[in-house]
């Protein structure tokens, strides 16, 4: 048996001791104090992508047991490296404060022991999920005897461009590894110190279990120039996923030559219809707005039926929690004078606040609520609070967003909460992937046709 065949057999069996493998190369370093030309950056990023392509071929052959062992190794390494991760993160947060970074962005940037523990738990959840690779989507035997199967296979090289979200570094890497892909990360300058530590931890953990360290790489060291090259690396990178604010996403969608799965901002709505109970409305609105206001599944606009009697209690609870209300004239007229608010404008209906602000409008019907949502929604998540089954069914049918929720908080639009283990992002497009993107969304399909000498007539 040749060395190459021994190596392949060891990979498929999950026996890392039997595999004789070369030492994986790391990303080329940037010489200290030496500016790189555009040609140098292009060559360096292309080299990273080529190493990712090689790593992706090896990842595609790894079985579930091997990939799950890698995920658990990453979790253990994160726990053991908590102190160094938090030290690096404190540097990034301090720099962000000095640069005037918004409170919402600082919240996304910040890691704590609890949040790191959450990342470890998400990796364990991923390890416990079925392997999407090899799943048979459909199959049949044709009248001529050909046996057909359409199966899930890895994308190959997945790139992600995101900003100030070091948790995404771990989430995307974990999902990519479980689905048999290699990943190239561009996490942005705001979290560069944190991401540098996280990527090192990820690579060392992969190497420790015999998988290629180059299955996780970063182009952060090459700044925006590196991100621009990554966006143009069609043929080297199979798919690119942007995750962040509108400006970042639109920049990637507009400039990328690599196919993009577009994630979107969350101008999220909740409609309280005439039949909704006060207790449920108060509890859900407080959770949807105040639990973590800086994330994309937080409610940004509340629509209240004019026949409902819950508005004063809901508004009072929100104000007590520190929420600033931006209200239309009818809402202000219906509120007690003791509840402060400010006049809403069209800008408020269009805004993803990511803060303790909420736009509130009064509507006279479900049709009017749906019309408002169609006008201002970004297609992320919308919810209805109701005790009327027909209204719930109409809302589900008529609202065209990635997630539609009945009588629950919008905060459930999340890969971990929906049982996906984690998420790459929440897609608001309609091609291939929509809503929280988990393991299956990082695969494509392959047709397998097996015959016994058939020819086409």
Automatic annotation (TrEMBL):
Pfam families: Aldedh. Residues 1-36 are annotated as: Disordered. Keywords: Amino-acid biosynthesis, Cytoplasm, NADP, Oxidoreductase, Proline biosynthesis. Pathway: Amino-acid biosynthesis; L-proline biosynthesis; L-glutamate 5-semialdehyde from L-glutamate: step 2/2. Residues 1-10 have a biased composition (Basic and acidic residues). The keyword Cytoplasm applies. Residues 43-329 form the Aldehyde dehydrogenase domain. It is found in: Cytoplasm. It is an enzyme of class 1 (oxidoreductase). It catalyses: L-glutamate 5-semialdehyde + phosphate + NADP(+) = L-glutamyl 5-phosphate + NADPH + H(+). Its EC number is 1.2.1.41. Catalyzes the NADPH-dependent reduction of L-glutamate 5-phosphate into L-glutamate 5-semialdehyde and phosphate. The product spontaneously undergoes cyclization to form 1-pyrroline-5-carboxylate. Belongs to the gamma-glutamyl phosphate reductase family. This is Gamma-glutamyl phosphate reductase. It comes from Pseudarthrobacter polychromogenes. The gene is proA.
